Amino acid sequence: MQQAGLATIGAISPLAAEPERAKELFIHHVFFYLKDPQNAKDEAKLLEGLHKLAKVPNIEYVHIGKPAETSRSVIVRDYTFSWMCFFKNIIEEEIYQTHPIHLDFIKDYAHLWEKVVVYDSVGPKKVS
Q1: Which residues pair with 34 in a beta bridge?
Q2: Which of 19, 29, 33, 36 could form a disulfide with 119 if both were Cys (CB 3.0 to 4.6 A apart)?
Q3: How many Å apart are CA 88 and CA 45, to the nearest integer?
Q4: Which of 20-24, 53-57, 85-89, 95-99 has the lowest mean pLDDT?
């Protein structure tokens, strides 16, 4: 009976079904470009939306940022907001992509931006 229960858990758990995908930290980094970057109301509205989005429960850590006042030639500073979130693994990020809070964010705030650039990366949870 106990073996049957374990087999059932393995069959329904995405982590059990895909152990390789569960090993690496997943970072989702998004850059938002407002349609009207000089519009303070639009900027405040998008920031409001990002704070709502941060409530998706499977996000491990989130950072909302603005371009830093740095001026080296390799630095890109033309975006309005940077949204970086960390997930335990790619499976958790895939859950985030279909979470109702994320879907509502897109529906309610996409009219504000002209472009979104996404950089996703995976790697070890700790580099030694």
Answers
A1: 113
A2: 29
A3: 29
A4: 20-24
Band of the pLDDT at 113, cuts 50, 70, 90? very high
CATH 3.30.1360.20 fits 24-123, yes or no: no
In the chain, where the domains are located: 24-123
Q: How far apart are CA 78 and CA 67, in angstroms?
A: 8
User: 10 Å Cβ neighbour count for 59?
Assistant: 20
Strand, helix or coil at 30?
A: strand
- H/E segment holding residue 114: strand 113-123
**Residues ≥6 apart with Cβ < 8 Å to 36:** 42
